[in-house]
Design goal:
The chain is α+β, with helices and mostly antiparallel strands. It folds into 2 domains: 2-33 and 115-297, Multidrug efflux transporter AcrB transmembrane domain (Multidrug efflux transporter AcrB transmembrane fold, Up-down Bundle); 39-110, Alpha-Beta Plaits, CATH 3.30.70. The protein has helices at 2-5, 7-28, 34-37, 53-60, 87-100, 113-141, 151-180, 186-216, 222-254, 260-279, 281-297; strands at residues 39-46, 69-72, 77-82, 103-111. The longest helix has 33 residues, at 222-254.
């Protein structure tokens, strides 16, 4: 299949995108929201026309509250994100917003730094546990596959694809955080965990077909077996992911503002997760087998 024939090109594309994503994270960092670093979130609505972000920023500047981020909601107001506020500062902030237009406070949430740090720790632990569970499952499921690639190597390849699938959405959010004020919250972690599950599901479907074809000896070479397995599963993988992405696009463009970032992470993750299961995992498997074959010849 052409994917195996041009495997180095597809792997180079993935490596370049992952490299740029990691570079963006190193330069700008992940824009952690109040869920992880603590802070305050106020939602306000306006009776008349919604003022511009520039107007609101000028109105709150004299309060010296540090960075104040305004994000439009899906109706007639804004989400206002700041550092943790005292009650007096909250009242002052609402007053400053009112000076730009008649505003009503719809909600106010405050999360302390210690709570945010605990959430961040739990998010990291949950990601690690999910990855370990996936690798152990793959190693067990493919325990009877010893030739030409050992079962545990299938698990390691799955880790590589999962890193690929997590790094790219994270890099996208590092860029959006720097240029558009996007922030990483608990929904971001939920979206990444969902992407991991969906991506590894696609990868296992391809690997399972490879295992079946290895037993049937339908091809004379391992690369040929992998290529045939991809041709048998690629349509199913793309169609499944495409239907999910179409739903997510509707959610992103029509859904409430509070779920837009969540939908965006899933869209990016689903797209590159499908790409990795087809254009990354299987080509790496072929490369691993080729390296092993060369070592045996020596």
């Amino acid at each position: 299949m052409f994917i195996i024939k041009y495997k180095k090109i597809f792997l180079s594309i993935s490596a370049a995108i992952v490299g740029l994503s990691i570079l963006a994270i190193l330069i700008w960092g992940l824009p952690l929201g109040i869920d992880f670093k603590g802070g305050a979130l106020m939602q306000v609505s306006f009776k008349d026309a919604r003022p511009t972000v520039t107007t609101l920023e000028k109105a709150v500047a004299p309060l010296s509250l540090g960075q104040v981020v305004f994000q439009e909601d899906s109706t007639d107001g804004y989400f206002v994100k700041t550092r943790s506020l005292t009650e007096a500062e909250r009242v002052s902030l609402l007053g400053a917003v009112n000076s730009a237009g008649t505003a009503t406070e719809k909600s106010f949430t405050s999360i302390g730094p210690s709570v945010g740090a605990e959430l961040a720790r739990k998010a990291i632990v949950s990601m690690i546990l999910v990855v370990i569970a996936i690798v152990l499952f793959i190693a067990y499921a493919f325990r009877k596959v010893a030739k030409p690639v050992s079962s545990w190597k299938y698990g390691l390849i799955a880790i590589v694809t999962l890193i690929h699938d997590v790094a790219i959405p994270s890099g996208v959010f590092a860029i959006l955080g720097h240029f558009a004020g996007a922030q990483v919250d608990s929904l971001f972690v939920v979206a990444l965990l969902t992407v991991l599950g969906l991506s590894v599901s696609d990868t296992i479907v391809v690997f399972d077909r490879i295992r079946e074809n290895l037993k049937l000896h339908t091809e004379s070479t391992f690369a040929g077996t992998v290529g045939k397995s991809l041709s048998q599963t690629i349509t199913r993988s793309i169609n499944t992911s495409l239907t999910v992405i179409l739903v997510l696009l509707v959610l992103f463009f029509v859904g409430p503002a509070s779920t837009k970032d969540f939908a965006l992470v899933l869209i990016v993750g689903m797209f590159f997760g499908t790409y990795s299961s087809i254009f990354v995992a299987s080509p790496i498997l072929v490369l691993v087998e080729a390296v092993q074959a060369k070592k045996k010849k020596k």
